[in-house]
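Hi L., both proteins are below.
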Amino acid sequence: RIQILFEIMSEVGLRVLLGVVMLIGVTSARIHEINIDSDYRQSIMLSNFGLLREGFIEVDVKSFKIKDSSQASYGLVLESSQTASSAQYVENHINVCPSQFRGMDDKQPKLLKMAIDTNPEHPKVDIEQIKNRNDWDYSGLSFLDELKTSKDSDGTSKTNTLTLNYDEKEKSYSFHFKLTVLKATDEAEFTLYFYRCPADGESSYDASYIFSANITSKNGKSYLSAGEKPLTFIYMVIGVVYFIMTWVWVRTMIHHSSNLFKIHYLMAGLVCAKFLASVLHSIDFYFIGTHGRPEEAWVILWYIIHLVRGLLLFISLALIGMGFAFVKHVLSSNEKMVLMTVVPLQIIANVAYVIIDSSEEAEVNYSTWKKILIFVDLLCCGAIIFPVMWSIRHLQQATERSDNKTSLILSQLKLFRQFYVLVVVYIYITRIALQFLEVILPFQYTWCKILLEEITTIVFFTVTGFKFRPYIQNPYYKLVDADENDLEMSHIPDETERDTLRNRAARLESSDEEV
């Protein structure tokens, strides 16, 4: 029944995943097409890209107009930072509105403000630096739209401006610029925001705005960000490693065919899915780097493999932790509940991943789905730890009760404790430690996080496969060859099952008394 339920839920997951892909389409990757309609947000992140020398970001803002009468000010903020820790600082810490501006220390990014001035007589976009301790000599940045210079009223300071075009028919504004990095000292992670500053006494929801933006970012001939350029090669090498692991595991299964269990086939499917996922990811990055957008057919195939890989990973780890098919052939009610929880959670996590990957960061629900993905993924990681803990507790109880199989049970207990440590370390590194590493990495070395994550996964798979490989001396399932009396310890009833047994015994006693 469990197998049938898994098949039904997997089929439902694939249909839901394909439905989401067909509904929202595939993201335009490094060629962003953003449409904002009736929005009230004070800041919107439009793009994030690591630019090297001769790299550029081209921005075309069109059809900008305010739906209601408002004295609020609008514009763009360009943020330059060297690490992810200072990237997106505007979004999280600082308000670019003059009345609410807060200073920054030396570690914070450099900022350029592009204020939209809709004065009917002289419409323009004023470019100025937001003053902080990191003064930015942005003369190393070349603007395609020729910057105009005008003196202030006192005749001393100058302001750089871009042309702001007004469409009489649509009553909307538009402007365009292309920013190119000319100096190596200006190489950085560039983040572009749209901002809205309410006028004094005006609520944040007094007026909404509409605009569309086309944003293209490129480094030389590649559309990949500075920290993504090596990923095409890295994922292909990782795919080769997983192919070798698949071949070795299949050879091991063939050599020890008499000692195989269903879990070994699941483990083979998992490594094969990882191989396919790595190759497809490499192909995906190749098309993005070459054409600026992925090929839709490859992306859909990648989403399907991503779902299968996630399901196989968590189901395999949960079943190994439970000792199912090796040490025991019956799952307790709690263990069944874990399996019934992990599968739908993985479907939700994959749907969230598809929505995030297929959406622009400027969309309203983007951050919400990102939080859902992180939360659900952590729930799945926590869920697979409990079966290992239960198995360790059951083996400890069996050690106290058994007389003639104590040494064998102790060897199994040691193996489960090692597996528990492996799972905890794997989760800690991939879900926590690498996130901190990403914060401190320079923008052009963010690929190191992906590489370390894949190396950690390969080591985890290799050690787990070695410890639970199909050979007769493996203490993990020696008890399969024992007699029925010895097998009783392989399934120690939990509290629910104990209550059921007590109720049955009580009913039998009452029936005996009646007789």
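That was the first. Here is the second:
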Amino acid sequence: PTYHQAGSKVMALWPGSGLYYPAVINRGLPGNRYDVEFEDSSTFALAAANVLAVSSTRRRSRSRSRSPGRRRSRSPGRARKSPTRAPKSPKKARPALQAAPVDLSASDSPLMERTVRRSTRSTGQPAPAQTVDDLTKSSESSESASLALTQPETSNIGTETKSAISPTLSPAEDSGSNNMSSSATATTDGGTSPQPEKPPAKTNFEFGGPVGALMTIISLPAVIIALYSVCSPRTCSISDVLSTKPPQLQSLLDVKAVAVVVAWLAFHAVLYCLPLGSVTWGRPLRDGSRLPYRISAFHTFLITGALFLGSVFYGDRFNLRIDPVYVYNNFLQLAIASVAVSAVVSVFLYAYSFRQGAMLAEGGNTGNHVYDFFIGRELNPRIGKMFDLKIFGELRPGLIAWVTINFCLAYTQYAKHGYVSNSMLMVNIFQFLYVVDGIFSEAALLSTMDIISDGFGYMLAFGDFAWVPFTYTLQARYLVDRPTQLPTWAVAFLIGLNMLGFYIFRTANSQKDQFRRSPTSPGVAHLYTISTSSGRLLLADGWWGICRKPNYLGDLMMALAWCGTCGAENIICYFYFIYFAILLIHRQRRDDLHCARKYGDAWKEYMRRVP
């Protein structure tokens, strides 16, 4: 065998695929193996026989005959032997170090489970090469072409940029199996497109099954209305609301409010279509394909903020002023309009999932219409080649609306009382920091449960478009009419609690993401891991050795700080913390069940070691 030094470029066999792809040697391993990293940052431990030297194979493939001297010495009557000969092995192999492939069981850091693909012709998987020399040429062209994927002008990906699709695909991620799909057919653009597949049927239900799904569909809008009713400008007490007359239906349905919500969504849809930011690849799907995603949420956030603030403070000059007080005065009408729009979007998503070739989510393929409508039938619904409806909804309209509404409520407090309380300032700053962090880390969302396994249906659509902007702003809305001035010690405590929670949340997520990308990097290479039967690793050290969901801990600490800005007098203001704790506990159990099925005994060992 040929022995490779660290940093050597090689052609490595993708596990389970039978195909070789460009890779780099990280280091040697015991047992005549190598730790190799493919171009998409996936890392595996491969046997030396499955790692080929690019330079040596290229030389062998170009050498088509023996030396002239050898040819002259051959007997004329002897048959001509094969023109190639295996190279001799070195006498000693270089020292090997310990490494292994990568995985992380703790899968998600939900910004919120809002309760939060398939249209490109090219799957990202190259055609199998016949020789290593062909693979070498392919890797050289794809390496230069893949650099173009980080440029904004690659918006026409899937039609004219098939050569830019990285050939180093990794189905061995959390979202799929270790086998490349063979159900692919050639398309006119030279790429491949997975054949329409019969998705795996699922019979085990979550959320109480069809009955629970139906009750949730009905109750979620009722919760939004109830929160407004129990905490209105007049009162914020459960006992008082029992004697309050419910609002008239005609007062809830407002044409202007519907127009505002539709215009907001349309504005963000237009920004999403613009060639802003960069394009990156999502995780492999069940069929081995990968979808391109435009990472531009932060650009959208900056543009939206600049235009909105410009309209508020300078719009009078051009007769284009937006009055922030309108949001406070029509809060319930805007919430109902968002509920209606999210319902329409959900109906569209469900109907759209029945088109030919749609890849269905495993959890949304039960055959029960109510349950599948709620959970989400299609995994990655797209319009065209780049407009991914799920990633669009996750971070753009809802999250940006959240901080925009908060600003409008702070503006209204100033307009009513002549000042902005320190509690209102804190809740705005705390939640602004949280939203900006999520938007700035948009690429990390591609590895979360929402994207890789959950379908896009009513649960996520309602959460994205209605639940997040109109329930997460409860504290700011409460403070508009109750401008609480907190003492200095309380301000210091809440700032410290929020920042500590944010530190845990961000560093835990960063450690997880770094381990996923490159387990041999200095920041995580020393951490203890547990090997699984598939050869992948579970991180059981650092933050992820203290508890199974350290990012959830940070999330809850921040949630408590946000609610604390309203003081300790009203339990209604702590709705977000109570709801979020229930949500994260439920999500923790979902993760445990998923990982127990996937990793078996290794997960039992992980649960034994990590509380």
